[in-house]
């Protein structure tokens, strides 16, 4: 029996009770390159699977959020963060009757373009690429799925659907009118799908709460400090009343769990209200809405912003995090400058790319794809005289 049955287009085998304004495979604007498929998975499910199997996704295991990989096995990485975002986003999408497959594909791909050493790496590469197009992790995520992955015959990239690619670059509101968008291709100024709009808030819910967990575990922030934050204090007190005998470590975990749940509930109820009030009947009307329809309530938005401010001041600017930030700047700057001065230090396949692509961009792509530990490895090999090359 031939199990490799080929079909000419993605199947539309999606759940039948999707909302009329949800993104659907049958309405997709399609893929950039024509393909013959070996099975009949729905379009966005195929996108999700391609993302999971790509090299950039695997590298997320050793790219970090706040704590560099060698600081301990407990702390979140870009990979565990992406899985947490997918869990949260899928839960929201299911309750709003949106397309879970598209939401999952976007959750798992939204951080593909991140550099080693978190946002510090992005800032360094953007500075080094000034005059050469700069660097932005969302644009890099799109570049990975459109150009840099090399897995399929006949084209570079993953050949994802237009909706997934649009969601990668436009999931954050600040990109809707960005010059990073190609106006003719990604509808600059128009809203993305509701599935894409979910990602920005799911991302925020995930990283705020796991950064609390990691920060407490590392001892960089304390329960007493967190108790100053309204959102945390309200949930912590509720958990304490519900489980008065619970030891502090379990009380913290339960507080984080209940806090995630409370934020999800707020997004679902607020978004249901906004969608109902807008009266949108299809995806086109979603795109033409004057504001995003996936949102926190104003009260929760204010409290969540206070939590983010707390984490910025007490965790992200902790002196130990700052020390690693300075080291990361040094690592990446010296590596970049060395490759630019002596391109023969690069692997052969990257040297070959310089025949068609500007040297700075090739070097940027190479460094952006590095994990934390690989970047530190390269630094040692380049600059420590007794390190093996």
At the first level of CATH, what is the class? Mainly Alpha
SSE string, helix = H, strand = E? HHHHHHHHHHHHHHHHHH
Largest sheet: none
Shape: globular
Overall pLDDT confidence: 91
Give the structural class: mainly alpha
Number of domains: 1
Helix % is 55-70%
CATH-wise, what's the superfamily? Hypothetical protein af1432
Q: What's the N-to-C terminus distance?
A: 51 Å
β-strand percent reads: under 5%
Discrete helix count: 18
Give the name of the CATH architecture: Orthogonal Bundle
Number of strands: 0
**CATH-defined fold name:** Hypothetical protein af1432
Q: Low-confidence runs (pLDDT<50, min 5 residues)?
A: 1-6
Give the radius of gyration: 22 Å
Task: Give an account of the 3D structure.
With 389 residues, this protein is mainly alpha-helical. It is built from 18 helices and no strands. Residues 1-6 have low confidence and may be disordered.
């Amino acid at each position: 029996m031939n199990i490799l049955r080929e079909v000419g287009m993605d199947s539309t085998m999606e759940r039948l009770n999707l909302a009329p304004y949800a993104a659907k495979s049958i309405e997709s604007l399609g893929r950039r390159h024509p393909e013959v498929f070996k099975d009949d998975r729905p379009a966005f499910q195929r996108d999700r699977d391609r993302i999971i199997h790509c090299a950039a996704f695997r590298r997320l295991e050793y790219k970090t959020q706040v704590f560099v990989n060698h600081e301990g096995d407990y702390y979140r990485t870009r990979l565990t963060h992406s899985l947490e975002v997918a869990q949260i986003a899928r839960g929201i999408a299911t309750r709003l009757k949106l397309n879970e497959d598209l939401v999952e594909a976007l959750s798992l791909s939204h951080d593909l373009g991140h550099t080693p050493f978190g946002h510090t790496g992005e800032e360094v590469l953007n500075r080094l690429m000034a005059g050469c197009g700069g660097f932005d992790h969302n644009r890099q995520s799109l570049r990975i799925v459109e150009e840099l992955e090399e897995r399929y015959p006949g084209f570079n990239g993953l050949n994802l659907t237009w909706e997934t690619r649009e969601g990668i670059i436009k999931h954050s509101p600040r990109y809707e009118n960005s010059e990073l968008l190609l106006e003719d291709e990604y509808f600059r100024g128009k809203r993305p799908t509701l599935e894409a709009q979910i990602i920005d808030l799911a991302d925020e819910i995930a990283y705020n709460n796991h950064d609390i967990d990691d920060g407490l575990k590392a001892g960089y922030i304390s329960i007493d400090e967190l108790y100053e934050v309204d959102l945390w204090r309200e949930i912590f007190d509720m958990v304490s009343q519900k489980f008065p005998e619970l030891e502090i470590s379990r009380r913290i975990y339960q507080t984080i769990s209940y806090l995630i749940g409370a934020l999800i509930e707020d997004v679902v109820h607020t978004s249901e209200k906004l969608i109902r009030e807008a009266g949108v009947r299809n995806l086109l009307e979603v795109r033409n809405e004057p504001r995003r329809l996936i949102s926190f309530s104003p009260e929760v938005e204010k409290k969540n912003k206070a939590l983010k401010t707390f984490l910025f001041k007490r965790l992200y600017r902790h002196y130990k995090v700052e020390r690693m930030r300075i080291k990361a700047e040094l690592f990446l700057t010296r590596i970049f400058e060395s490759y630019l001065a002596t391109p023969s230090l690069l692997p052969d396949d990257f040297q070959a790319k310089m025949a068609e692509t500007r040297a700075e961009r090739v070097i940027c792509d190479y460094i952006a794809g590095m994990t934390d530990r690989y970047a530190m490895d390269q630094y040692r090999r380049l600059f420590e005289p007794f390190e093996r090359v």
